[in-house]
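Consider the subject:
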Amino acid sequence: MSSKYIVRQPIKDVGGNTIGHEILYYGENQAFSSESTTAEFAAADTIYNFLTQNTSKALKGSLNFMTFTTMLLMKKTPRLFDKSELVIQIDDSVIIHPLSMHFVNQYAKEGYKIAVNEFQFAPRYLALMDSIDYIKINADTQDSAMHNIIEIAHSMNKKCVVTGIETGEQYQKAVALGSDLLEGSYVAERLKTKAHSSSYIQSNFFRLMVAVTRDEPDVDEIERLISMDASLTYGLLKMANSVYFALRHRATTIHQAIMTLGLGQLKQWIYLLSASGADNQIDEGTEEFLKLSFMRASFCSELMKYAQDMPISRSEGYLMGMFSTLGYLIDAPLEEILSAVPVADEIKAALLHHEGRCGLLYDLLLSYETANWDQITKLAERLGIPNQLLTSVYFICMENVNVLWDQLTNAYPNQEEPVEAAEA
């Protein structure tokens, strides 16, 4: 898989204090071009990956400058962020769009800060001045033009950010001409965080989009659809437990994660996924791992009815089976993947080291997949599971999963068909 990163470019004042970061998404070691149709993908990828990667409080309390397209503005994506920590950046493609100005002005009235990239002396830019807070100017701009822009900005109480400062000469020019803020590799090195790719089942995802956009969404239906896809389940838990949504108690189940986000923000999450590049396309091998995760989740959940002295609940057993394949579905070590979501320590010990009673259950699952009958008998006995039940439980789960998988992987029908998941 190609490398993908979330890059934070520090923005400093003339005194050297960091006041915020510009957030950028880099795919295949190059930032997506803002002049192509991939701009929408780039903006959505930036926001989605920033939200899900930001699972600590490291970036709270400073400004995050993020570029939004017209579609993201119309979808109300900025409202995923605290208005005190977001600067909405807009490009010329937004400014010339006939519907955009209404949304920009609305966000400004709500208290969001607005920045304009590559400011120009044109009527459409000047008409925005009441709503904008920051004017961004490239360091390569001619001295006279930069001087005029900064003079006009200051006369209207706007701050100027000179970007792309790569040399000491550019730095000195920006300071001498009165820039308020400075950005570029000479000012500070970029901070890079790897963004991990994952895939999900297209037809199931389409059903999920339909479910969340109903006039009266059915939370149980939404929960069922998410619970059948390991990548969606993982992504939802990461989103719900990022610093932007997490409450005092962390969300450890799909239902809790949905309740933490709320239906409005859940729609935003699903929209960002649908708009974020082509990583969601799955190949045949990936589909097999997604199906295996669903089968393991169902089998673990059913065995939890019989296993004795288990330190986790049935829903946690379901997650253990579901997450057992994440190391194959996401381009990162399983230990790193599990550290990003609040699953029980017993589950982590089981999946990483085969330890504890959860480790016994996980080993029983693996032994059944490889038909290791000696191990199956020993492990079932240690867990207190009647040996004669295993075959019937396994085949019932397999039959249910096969039926559901056929529904999930077929094109979405013209007439809605109910999709039921095995009880989690």
About this structure: Residues 28-37, 411-424 have pLDDT under 50 and may be disordered. The beta strands are 4-13, 18-27, 30-31, 63-67, 86-90, 113-116, 134-138, 159-163, 181-183, 191-194.
